[in-house]
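Example record

The entry below shows one chain as it appears in the dataset: sequence first, then structure tokens.
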Amino acid sequence: MLLRRANLARVSGGNFDVIVVGAGINGAVSAAALAGRGASVALIDRGDFGGFTSQESSNLVWGGFKYLENYELPLVFGLCRSRNRLMKAYPDNIKEIPFLATLDETAPYRPWFAALGATAYWGIGLFGTGRPRVFGSAELETVEPVIDTRTARGAVQYQDAYLVDNDSRFVFSFVRSAIEAGAAVANYVELVSAERVGDRWVCRLRDTDCGDELTTTARVVVNATGPFVDDLNASWGLTTEHRILYSKGIHLVVPRLTTTRHDRVLAFFDDTQRLFYVIPMGRRSVIGTTDTRVDTPYTEVTDEDRDFLLHQINARLDRPEPLTRDDVIAERSGVRPLVVRRGSGDQSDADWTSLSRRHEVEGDAERAVVTVFGGKLTDCLNVGEEVAALVQSLGVPLEKDLHNWYGEPASATRTEFYRQARLCRLDSLRTKPGTEPLTDRLWRRYGRRAFGLLEAIRADPTMGEDIMGSADYLRAELYNAAEHEMIVTLDDFMRRRSKIDLVVRDRDILGSPGLREVAEILFGDHAERRLADYVEGKALRH
């Protein structure tokens, strides 16, 4: 909490070039890009970093193969280029992965036609991934035995990428980049009001954790509040060319479904001829997503949602027993903010379901406001660059973009960490079958900070022990999180800085003797209150 208090002190009474409101992927990347180019930046969010829409994604970094259906070639080209950039910049966090799309008798495309589309997709993506392949139904059963091939005409396999860890942790990597470049950042800080006074915005803020109020000023406001951008702009009387519609999507996390040792995304057309996926998440599989138009950004998984996805996947897998609600370990529900032009009407169902996840960035020179509409994780670097360009056009001087505000540390730094890890036999600490080497995990999650974890383990071997059994988290990682990751609630750690809440059943978490120690390390004297809040939150969700 010391890091958060220090940042709050900087925000309070500060005079910034830019205040970024909203710390999902769009806000975090905007803050990193601006701070990395020399602007003085404040980043705030009324919840946690990556704590709303950005924590409910499919964890995929992809070029939008399905957008080829609507001939959105420029969008697919741009997303594929963004995917390639991210894969190059984050080689340990973002990995190439095969997508195996099964085409049965109800699918809208035959295998030969899908193969043409996959080849075109590969070319549009500048051949930045492995080449596509086509399988007949008999060969498909050998490639992935869990698929029910009785009605399959065949399958096409193409390549995209995914996040090895969770989406919120990836968002936090940009928050850390912003901090390291000099930005003042604070979660659980709400924008109460903002008034244009002369050439500056005077912002009244409230710490939602303790109730304290503070004031700060900025020349430019970046509205990166995701599904709430329209409401915030309306509160200022600001009119924009674009607006947001909401599409609800859910995911179900279940025990690992695929039987092969290799990670692979399975793709199927559901009964409405819409694609859904089975995505690997370590020893779990994530089934989703759905696509339901809603009128509010606040959503939850309903019985109808669960039953629909379970029915769809059970009809397409060859398992001894069908999946039931009892197999669901965790659930995710969120909205996609879809961009439309004002005056385009409510969109018919046909038009709405064809809306893509493109983004738009608008600037209002008179009010000095930049608004980010829509978007997706794959396109985040472009969002950061476009926001920076607009902020600069509004009179904030920026340094040349050296592209040093994103990406993993240099390969030489990685090599040195792996050398030191071998010398202290770090990977010998892990005895669980089916878990990745500690060296890989610590480097991917912490980068340069992993050297400090290694030193802590050398000094005290208990720091290398798992603290919650099946959660697969070291004691040293908890101390690192307490010092460097601005954790305010236990949910911040369990759901966003880690993915424990996504891969471990609630009853196993609450029954773990290590949970109390987690709270004590993270919160010290406030552990009992934070633990009680977490347990109460679990009860309310059930």
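Notes for this example: Residues 411-541 form one domain. The two ends are 29 Å apart (CA to CA).
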